[in-house]
TrEMBL record:
It comes from Peribacillus simplex. This is Heme chaperone HemW. The keyword Metal-binding applies. Keywords: 4Fe-4S, Chaperone, Cytoplasm, Heme, Iron, Iron-sulfur, Metal-binding, S-adenosyl-L-methionine. GO terms for cellular component: cytoplasm. Its main location: cytoplasm. Probably acts as a heme chaperone, transferring heme to an unknown acceptor. Binds one molecule of heme per monomer, possibly covalently. Binds 1 [4Fe-4S] cluster. The cluster is coordinated with 3 cysteines and an exchangeable S-adenosyl-L-methionine. GO terms for biological process: porphyrin-containing compound biosynthetic process. GO terms for molecular function: 4 iron, 4 sulfur cluster binding; coproporphyrinogen oxidase activity; metal ion binding.
């Protein structure tokens, strides 16, 4: 049974230099038509893949809060009318940018049942923020979070990025200290990945992107883990830290390899054993829905061996790791048999350990996670 829904709002007032998510400039876009068609897609997906009720709803982007007040209210109303969930029990998240949210927008979200906000802060260094194409400044982070708390939000998360161009250890330490001083219940922190079709990618190809060396990036990650632990924020996933009870239930859907609806332009979903990608361009997304057809660009029915691989490389992102019992119940085979070779090899390298009925990354394994994940691919076919 599907328990989660992701909704994508692709509109942005400004494009950040590192962002490779599906996004378009807000100005001149058919936003109202888009929102109407999102509501139609919700209805159609629920008809095709019914669910008794959702545990999580996540609205991301793009920048969902780039919508004006009327559009934001329409979106929230459409979600509440169409998706089967109880805001008092479900986790209902909106992504937002610091400086984007007026009190009126925050009150629309709060009174619509949104109970979690995720802010893209990235850094508290104004020069770095300019360098990476962010339009907000550190002061706006404090102002927006304070305003959100005044309105009534208590479950607030912020994203940070390390390994940014020109970022020093001192820069990151300062950002980390300021972030933790906010005493929020949840933090996400990711290393910069330079993706194709981004400003940073073009700069890198021209030799104009001054990235920190890998050793420094690894030191930043180690400092991140140390400081979060020191301040009572347990690491429940490679890049995520929370106070007890404030873990992102929606993101755990992905790492548990569970199914979810993907709604909106460029959204990806996992329904009926099939991974689905929607059309990305807004007009290409709208057109099939106008004709009462789902806006599907690609479908990939996931074969059994891929589902088992995904169970490993997604589940190993979690600090608790992958349950031997759950794996057996899902796939009717022992994990230690089907993945004997990578389990033995990565354990021998000190990157994996098996304890308490779980396979999990070691502390060193967290630093080399991608190498470990890669080791589980193609194994089943070759044996």
């Amino acid at each position: 049974m599907i328990k989660s829904a992701y909704l994508h709002i692709p509109f942005c007032e400004h494009i950040c230099h590192y962002c490779d998510f599906n996004k378009v400039f807000l100005q001149g876009q058919p936003v109202d038509d888009y929102l109407q068609m999102m509501k139609r897609e919700m209805v159609m997906q629920l008809s095709k893949y019914p669910t008794a009720g959702l545990d999580t709803v996540f609205v991301g982007g793009g920048t969902p809060t780039s919508l004006d007040e009327k559009q934001l209210a329409f979106l929230c109303e459409a979600i509440n009318e169409t998706l089967p969930f109880d805001p008092k029990k479900a986790e209902y998240t909106f992504e937002a940018n610091p400086g984007d949210l007026s009190r009126e927008k925050l009150e629309i979200l709060y009174h619509s049942g949104v109970n979690r906000l995720s802010f893209g802060v990235q850094s508290f260094n104004d020069e770095l923020l300019k360098r990476i194409g962010r339009t907000h400044r550190a002061l706006e982070v404090y102002e927006t979070i304070h305003l959100a708390q005044e309105v009534g939000f208590t479950n607030i998360s912020i994203d940070l990025i390390y390994g940014l161009p020109g970022q020093t250890m001192e820069d990151f330490n300062d950002t980390l200290d300021k972030a933790i001083a906010l005493q929020l219940p949840h933090y996400s922190s990711y290393s910069l990945i330079v993706e194709p079709k981004t400003v940073f990618y073009n700069q890198m190809r021209r030799g104009r992107l001054n990235l920190p060396p890998q050793e420094l990036e690894a030191s930043m990650y180690e400092r991140l883990m140390e400081e979060m632990e020191k301040h009572g924020l347990h690491q429940y996933e490679i890049s995520n830290f929370a106070r007890e009870g404030f873990e992102s239930r929606h993101n755990l859907t992905y790492w548990d390899n569970a199914e979810y609806y993907g709604i909106g332009a460029g959204a990806h979903g996992y329904t009926g054993g099939t991974r689905v990608a929607n059309h990305g361009p807004v007009k290409k997304y709208i057109a099939p829905l106008m004709a009462n057809q789902l806006p599907v660009l690609e479908e990939h029915p996931v074969p059994l061996h891929e589902r088992m691989e995904e169970e490993m490389f997604l589940g190993l992102r979690k600090t608790e790791g992958v349950s031997l019992e759950i794996f057996k119940n899902k796939f009717f085979v022992e994990m230690t048999e089907i993945f004997r070779k990578p389990l033995e090899e990565e354990s021998a390298k000190g990157l994996l350990k098996i304890e308490g009925g779980f396979v999990r990354l070691t502390e060193r394994g967290k630093l080399l996670g991608n190498e470990v994940f890669q080791s589980f691919l193609g194994v089943i076919d070759s044996e």
